[in-house]
Design goal:
The structure is a homodimer of 340-residue chains.
Chain A lengths: L12 H8 L3 H8 L7 H14 L5 H8 L4 E7 L8 H17 L2 E7 L12 E5 L5 H9 L4 E4 L9 E5 L1 H14 L5 E4 L6 H16 L9 E2 L5 H12 L7 E4 L2 H13 L9 E6 L12 E4 L2 H17 L8 E4 L2 E3 L10
Parallel strand pairs in A: 1-2, 1-3, 3-4, 4-5, 5-11, 6-7, 6-8, 8-9, 9-10
Antiparallel strand pairs in A: 10-12
Helix pairs in contact in A: 1-2, 1-3, 5-11, 7-8, 9-10
Chain A binds a DNA duplex (16 and 16 nucleotides) through helix 2 and helix 4.
DNA sequence: CTGAAAGCGCTAACAA
DNA sequence: TTGTTAGCGCTTTCAG
């Protein structure tokens, strides 16, 4: 057996109990704010705690209760996520709220097929679901409170918080139509993400609504990178009958398109109207401020954590919610009525 | 007392021991790869482990040993860090390596003065030290393996891995001088960061070396944001005797400067030579590719984790290292000899 | 090479 | 209101 701690560096509940002259149970009760402790004892314990600078061991608490305050954030490591405005906004939103709620934030940049351990994890935030639905199912099966953000999960019993990408895209293209444009192109994001798919859907929906025939050539797929945005822009601008307007799936790509257009001698917005998506502050600073669709990324992230926290700590059986946050078209300078 | 677990959902070392017909001690030995276990017993245990899908509880291990595989990444939450290329690169580098080394990554976006708990944390990566040196000192005092990246810490017994900002800035300005420029401006980053301070230092050093008198008006301070970069650029360009070249503390700001210059009718690089810092891929895509100083951010982050890991798991008493990684001037198209 | 038992720090059921 | 005690799941003496 081990010797009783002699050179104990950490002070434990025992030390507090001894100093306060009560049992460790009482100390535990005080720590956990149980009402059934006499005033006098409580203050004694509190004094001892203060004096010894006692900090209960989260580890031991977890082991004893089986509960944990650790929130894991799972970010699927798909190409390009690390060059995105999106990822940082997400981390910012989640990180600051976790800090405020005193949740420990564990960051996992997961391989899609990786099987993660989930040990000692109290809750999980899935940032999008990209080929890793099995991870989500596993978590759900194990009964770990989970929540999905930036992806509307329809077929699983899990709350999700996403953004109205379809509506956002639709409003962007509607706007372009309202300016008289007929030849409207779309540069997509990485179609492994639901968001990109939905933006494409919104694009098509608007065209249909506005009785504009879909031209497949006007749809160019990318992986969200600036490089591919450049190629897409070049292709679009040099077509025999080029589009007069383009809806781009992200602001950073839209800025790239602007740059390319200018290099090719086009004037924005005279020769080409552009709408982006994100409301990335970078869009404000060019010679022509970018018209874009604002999506509440930080809010989405924070609502997600809030929801997760309440599942974890308040009501494990709270009803599943499928929240879709609205987007907002922000009209600035990068579009103009056709022919004006 | 509690009933012995009946509806046990997790399988424990006891279950394995029972199935294998050995003591839990033996199971523990097998788990920890102790050599002193008979072949036969070992394989029995291994079989049982497989059959039961046993996974040792990290929590219990931590509690019993006092050791932990959790690495905390502390990012000081100063203004603007969340709009930076830098932060994401850091998280990417650290995140992927932690994943590979099977370290749990805890993310803390700390308030400078916050006193964090450090419970159950096996090691800490300090991403820069910005007013939070006391946190570092506390960690060191508690004996928690720590490492600092992106900041050369001179006065504390801690390994640090940083980038040669002085040298990088110097090479940038030297290059500008070599092109014949005399009126060289500098747009700084946020001077709360050591990196920005050092880049400013390198700038001054180069001027001195090249016998160019320092003009305070040519130094404009910012917080790394595009907005402030814009203001700085406007100020610089509209001076009575404007600079012919400018060294900018980050690529994203440099791109903004380019944009402003163009808006004001200046040609890049004919009227103004620009060097950035970072080697942000965005710099490649404009009409004029940005000349810049490449800094190995991901590598720095990964070296940091590697070093920390070895302190944690190999040699706690390894000698302190102060590593400074070299930078590299990447010459592209945004500079031109004066008057050519 | 193996196992019994103490201990890590805490919670919770039970009795007093 | 309080204390006793049996766990939580694992490691680590120590004695075979």
């Amino acid at each position: 057996m081990r010797k009783k701690k002699i050179n104990s560096t950490t002070v434990s509940i025992n030390d507090v109990a001894r100093l306060a002259g009560v049992s460790i149970t009482t100390v535990s009760r005080v720590i956990n704010k149980s009402p059934s402790v006499k005033r006098k004892n409580r203050s004694r314990v509190l004094d001892a705690v203060k004096q010894l600078k006692f900090e209960p061991s989260v580890l031991a608490q977890r082991l004893a209760t089986g509960k944990s305050n650790v929130v894991a954030l799972l970010i699927p490591r798909y190409e390009g996520i690390f060059y995105s405005f999106y990822a940082l906004e997400l981390i910012r939103g989640i990180g600051t709220l976790c800090e405020a709620l005193k949740l420990d934030l564990l960051l996992h940049l997961t391989e899609v097929n990786a099987t993660l351990s989930l040990q000692g994890i109290g809750g999980i935030v899935f940032a999008d679901i990209i080929g890793n639905k099995s991870q989500l199912q596993e978590a759900l099966a194990k009964g770990i409170p989970s929540i999905v953000i930036n992806n509307r999960v329809q077929d699983l019993e899990v709350s999700s918080i996403s953004v109205d990408n379809v509506g956002g895209a639709e409003s962007a293209v509607d706007y372009l139509c309202s300016l008289g444009h007929k030849n409207i192109a779309h540069i997509t994001g990485d179609l492994v993400t639901q968001a990109s798919l939905q933006r494409l859907e919104g694009y098509k929906k608007s065209l249909k609504k506005n009785k504009i025939e879909l031209n497949q050539e006007y749809i160019v797929k990318t992986d969200y990178s600036r490089g591919q945005a450049r190629q897409a822009a070049e292709k679009l601008i040099q077509m025999s009958s080029p589009a007069t307007a383009v809806f781009v799936a992200s602001d950073s790509m839209a800025l790239e398109v602007m740059a390319v257009a200018r290099e090719l001698g086009k004037d924005i917005p005279k020769d080409l109207s552009i709408v982006g998506f994100d409301d990335n502050p970078s869009g404000l600073y060019g010679p022509v401020a970018l018209t874009t669709v604002r999506q509440p990324l930080v809010r989405m992230a924070q609502e997600g954590v809030k929801e997760l926290n309440s599942i974890m700590h308040v009501d494990k059986k709270a009803p599943i919610k499928k929240i879709v946050l609205p987007t907002e078209l922000v009209i600035r300078e990068s579009c103009r009525p056709l022919g004006s």
